[in-house]
UniProtKB/TrEMBL annotation:
<protein>
    <recommendedName>
        <fullName>EpsG family protein</fullName>
    </recommendedName>
</protein>
<feature type="transmembrane region" description="Helical">
    <location>
        <begin position="186"/>
        <end position="208"/>
    </location>
</feature>
<feature type="transmembrane region" description="Helical">
    <location>
        <begin position="12"/>
        <end position="33"/>
    </location>
</feature>
<keyword id="KW-0812">Transmembrane</keyword>
<feature type="transmembrane region" description="Helical">
    <location>
        <begin position="220"/>
        <end position="244"/>
    </location>
</feature>
<feature type="transmembrane region" description="Helical">
    <location>
        <begin position="256"/>
        <end position="278"/>
    </location>
</feature>
<feature type="transmembrane region" description="Helical">
    <location>
        <begin position="298"/>
        <end position="316"/>
    </location>
</feature>
<feature type="transmembrane region" description="Helical">
    <location>
        <begin position="135"/>
        <end position="155"/>
    </location>
</feature>
<feature type="transmembrane region" description="Helical">
    <location>
        <begin position="161"/>
        <end position="179"/>
    </location>
</feature>
<keyword id="KW-1133">Transmembrane helix</keyword>
<keyword id="KW-0472">Membrane</keyword>
Length: 329
């Protein structure tokens, strides 16, 4: 399994990335705290995380572990120094700045495409309405690009304790380490990943309930599939086919990204949280696709542009870019 290691780039390019990431994070931090979906819920966390943490801890270690304890501890620490509103602002700035900077500096040759990636709604909303997921992605990316192995393991290992979707992402990550260690062929990697996807798709919510995770007992998730229209399923099948047509060398070096796609497609009609899991690994998939060559690269560019436009078109003109409270009423 090939880790994505950023190219160095010039000092001037890094300075530009810092400036752009700062502007990006400052803008998102400055959005109306009360004007977006789920902000009231995050304000509750900012005020009462200590009580929530104590409740989960009292119910046992497994329930505490599966209910994002690091997210709660982060809120507890911030609330000691900031108001609830400023706690949210710090979370938004920290997440959006670090992730955007790491993405922008990764491949200077593709700077314009990288800007497109961080402006995609499925990426952007993790720093507008899904703040916990945005922070989880931050921890994962800090580990993903860390050159010091103990810190890499630490940050990637901490990500599920911020957002539960990373239990699935990290399971795929460990599976890919096993694939590389035992030199498993591409065909069997696909078969094993599909098998893991189907098993977790069928048993995921039951397992969450058994471990005491809040998703397991949530009626919103129980007894239902992913609930998508199928259009996203078709789009990402096409994207996956393009990746497979690049050949065995590409697939071997980027199978972790490919496995995220396979998991998403295999659980699309089975697991209600599969879209959230995919969003946690979406940037890994997009960055891996930059390694495509010849016509496949241009096919990926066309798919980026199509996806970008189709994601943004329904949101144009809506309050809060489609995530405002008024849009949800």
């Amino acid at each position: 399994m090939k880790l994505l290691i950023p190219t160095q780039g010039s000092f001037g390019y890094k300075a530009m990335c810092l400036a752009l990431a700062g502007i990006y994070a400052w803008f998102l931090m400055g959005l109306d705290i009360d004007g977006y979906i789920d902000r009231a819920n995050y304000l509750v966390y900012a005020k009462y995380s200590k009580e929530v943490f104590a409740m989960y801890a009292a119910n046992g270690f497994s329930e505490m572990l599966t209910n994002e304890p690091l997210w709660l501890l982060f809120n507890i620490w911030l609330s000691e120094h900031f108001t609830p509103e400023d706690t949210l602002r710090v979370v938004i700035f920290f997440s959006s700045f670090l992730v955007s900077f790491l993405v922008l500096r990764s491949y200077p040759k593709y700077a314009f495409v990288l800007v497109l990636f961080i402006l995609m709604p499925q990426v952007l909303k993790n720093n507008i309405i899904h703040l916990r997921q945005g922070l989880g992605i931050t921890f994962f990316f800090l580990g993903w690009w860390c050159r010091y192995l103990p810190l890499r393991i630490l940050f990637i290992g901490l990500a599920p304790l911020v957002h539960a979707s990373f239990f699935f992402i990290n399971a795929l990550f460990l599976l890919n380490i096993a694939f590389s260690t035992f030199s498993v062929s591409i065909v069997w990697r696909v078969v094993y990943t599909l098998g893991v996807g189907v098993v977790l798709g069928v048993m995921g919510i039951w397992l969450a309930d058994a471990l005491g995770a809040r998703q397991g007992g949530n009626a919103m998730y129980s007894g239902m599939g992913a609930g998508g229209t199928g259009l996203a399923f078709l789009f990402w099948i096409v994207f996956t086919v393009v990746l497979f047509m690049e050949g065995k060398a590409f697939l071997k070096n980027n199978f972790f990204a490919v496995s995220i796609l396979i998991f998403y497609l295999s659980t699309y009609f089975l697991l209600p949280v599969t879209a959230r899991v995919f969003e946690s690994g979406m940037l890994v998939v997009l960055l891996a696709s930059l390694g495509l060559t010849d016509w496949r690269r241009y096919a990926a560019y066309t798919l980026y542009a199509f996806y970008f436009c189709m994601q943004w078109y329904p949101l144009l003109g809506l309050p809060g870019y489609g995530w405002g409270i008024e849009s949800a009423i």
